[in-house]
């Protein structure tokens, strides 16, 4: 059976995705800085690697067929952590994955990462980091899926999404639970080509929207 490494498995989306994969009896390696944050998870399909993403975490990739990068520096940190986690750790993850023969790399990116100059806000350093990490993955030689969610919310999963950006910017949002369920769908299905798409709450079942 395949094994998926989830980088950032104690974060909000990362932990939701971890729980969903485990419920579907998927082998998961959870990479976290503090394993106590996963103390409530108990599954024979789970192994935990405690490692700081600012260091060398290449050993965590060993034996994994698939990687989900769901780590993030968080909104309360400075630009330095944005560079070290959202850019540098993400690029290292792709490099390690290529070296270890990973078959599929799933990147949780962000709306606006395609063109950071189009966004005039304090988020620009974050979007630049996401853009550069995405570009590194695109040129890595890995098979990849890049998911660019809209503004994240804490609403319950509707399990209905769209990959079409709404005309009304206030509707360009998605619940973290919907993102996690989309990651489950991507991680447990085979796709024939590399893909980059935005993701928002919508009116189509995830299976139909994320083809």
TrEMBL record:
Cited Pfam families: NAD_binding_10 (PF13460)
Stored InterPro entries: NAD(P)-bd_dom, NAD(P)-bd_dom_sf
Keyword tags: Lyase
Molecular function as annotated in GO: lyase activity
Domain NAD(P)-binding: 8-189
EC numbers, comma separated: 4.-.-.-
Record-linked Gene3D superfamilies: NAD(P)-binding Rossmann-like Domain (3.40.50.720)
The protein, known as: Uncharacterized sugar epimerase YhfK
Lineage of producing organism: Bacteria, Pseudomonadati, Pseudomonadota, Gammaproteobacteria, Alteromonadales
